[in-house]
Amino acid sequence: MRAERGLLIVLSGPSGAGKSTVIAALMKRRRDIRFSVSATTRDPRPGEVDGKDYFFRTHEEFARMIEADAFLEHAQYVGNHYGTPAAPVDESLDAGYHVLLDIEVQGAGQVMAKRPDAVSVFLCPPSLRELERRLRGRGTDTEEKIRGRLAAACREYARAKDYDYIVVNDDAQTAAAELDAIITAEQCRSGKRLNLIIEGDRPI
Questions:
Q1: What angle do CA 116, 122, 125 make, to 5 degrees?
Q2: How high is the mean pLDDT in each 10-residue block of the chain (204 residues)?
Q3: 2 domain-assigned
Q4: How many separate domains does the chain show?
Q5: CATH, residue 186
């Protein structure tokens, strides 16, 4: 019996929202989720493995992939290109796995335009004051960087209305449970389940 096609899940949120922690908690709750691997033209860092951390490609290879419309989204940052290849995502979806993309709002907009069936979730802390507290608590950013991240967060918050769901990360386990519930609810949509309802000897 063919596995039911998985869900493409787009997760965005400002720096400091706790996306990595929530994703880790979600993946402990569910074994049917795969994390999307991006492609990049930057050089591998020590210990990074091609196909696991990133798909490392030359600028020429990346350009050919753009020409072939092989990305769900792509962008340039500090002289290098980054993108989400469609083929491995679709391979996992066809195998019945849900694929999670942790992606900023511009890239998320590209994905949602190409894949209107994607489930989009905006993750945020309970307040901007809490976001600032978390950023300062890291102890790794300058005052200028913190202010820049807060300004970026305000711009990202303005795009939250474009997402299907908003999850507030006041507690990582609770936020992961809400994401888990969203996935389960999406799986139970009537359009995905009508084929299971039998009328006489034939599906509806």
A1: 180
A2: 82 93 96 94 94 95 97 90 96 96 93 97 94 88 89 93 97 98 95 72 56
A3: no
A4: 1
A5: 3.40.50.300
